[in-house]
Amino acid sequence: MSHSQANKPLSFCVSELKQQYRNHPSMFQVQLLSLQLKQEKHQAHNTYQSLKKRTLIS
């Protein structure tokens, strides 16, 4: 590590890394998996609410 890099604030280094890897192909896969998980969570929530309503009505 060079002397100039050692003097950079850590938050600046992290933001540089985020910017560097934002468009990396593996990040797209992570984003796809995240969206899929959110969709499955939403479906599970809807299913739970539907079952909950049915049991309250019965």
Give your account of this protein's structure.
The chain has 58 residues and is mostly helical. Helix content is 84%, strand content 0%. It starts with a helix and ends with a helix. The model has no long low-confidence stretch (mean pLDDT 84).
Largest sheet: none
Compute the average pLDDT.
84
Radius of gyration, rounded? 22 Å
Extended strand count: 0
The secondary-structure class comes to: mainly alpha
Distance between the termini: 68 Å
Unreliable stretches: none
- Residues in helix, %: over 70%
Question: Which of globular, elongated, flat, extended, rod-shaped describes the shape?
Answer: elongated
Elements, N to C (H/E): HHH
User: What is the count of DSSP helices, taking H or I runs of 4+ residues?
Assistant: 3
Share in β-strands: under 5%
